[in-house]
Amino acid sequence: PGSVSAAFQEYLKHLGLQDFPCGFGSWNKSRLNARRRPWAEPVGLEEDVPPGEETPEALLELLRDQHSPWALPPDCSPQDRLLREVAALAPELLCGSRVFQVVKSLRILDKGVEEVDEGLLRFQQLEELILSANHISRVTSAHLPRTLKVLELCCNAVDDLQDLCAQPPPELQHLGLGYNQLCGPSQEKHLTVDFWPNLVSLDLSFNSLTDLLELVSQLSTLQNLHILVLQGNPLALIPTYRGFLVDSLPKLSILDDIHIGPEERQQFHGLARQPGLIRSEAQVVVSIGEMKGLPNPEAFQRLEVDSEDPVITYSYCVTYEF
């Protein structure tokens, strides 16, 4: 599927919300009819269930028992379990467009999604959207529910934040953009409090950001930012990288998954007022381990000058790509 909406429909089919023991069917007909007739006697106890039907407890047991053929795999998400149990106990709540009112967390991983379409606006209660490991290059913020608090786009192809920052969800607390294609200096201007007033956690790891000074000047406006991940960017190779960030962002608690303690903050105190210490260059030392299958140069050095033996010359080229 090319869009998030199409991937969600495939996801619903995979869950089987309309199939036994979920959904409507002969296994729960009396109970569901009773709900449509409020004046009828309540149905639910074992002795009240007609032959051929199942109690709500029995249906739940079929979903939860790990040996049941209808059980979900152990690594499924809490959202999967919730939807399946709701579909068994109250399938009318998930009929048609009602399913969009129930979903608060949507995780679509590695499904070939390329487009964040406007169909997402039907999720009026959505708080968490995880779209990692897809093929998304642009995110139109107008297609994101305003209730969103977590947006994870790790391992995609996002190379520009302009569309995302046009009308971003105002309550967003976590933005994950690790392993994308962001490169400076044009992207830093989108990482300010004007766009993300409630941002607590930001992941920009393994992109191509290079301007540490400009990035810090923008991030310093995010008054609620406590967690920041920048490792894997070229700017992280700067010798004073961590110390400069620790001193420049006093409200930061965790940098690159490492807690910032009082001792470290005291150690780098005052570094933010010395931007001249930041050099736009870095040194990388590469060590090559044991190499097999190459002739030993010492063997050629033992050849006599006047030797009539043929001489074979070898040359090698080692290339490093950054």
TrEMBL record:
InterPro entries: Leu-rich_rpt (IPR001611), LRR_dom_sf (IPR032675). One of its GO terms (cellular component) is cytoplasm. Coiled coil: none annotated. Keywords: Leucine-rich repeat, Repeat. This is LRC43 protein. It comes from Horornis vulcanius. The gene is Lrrc43.
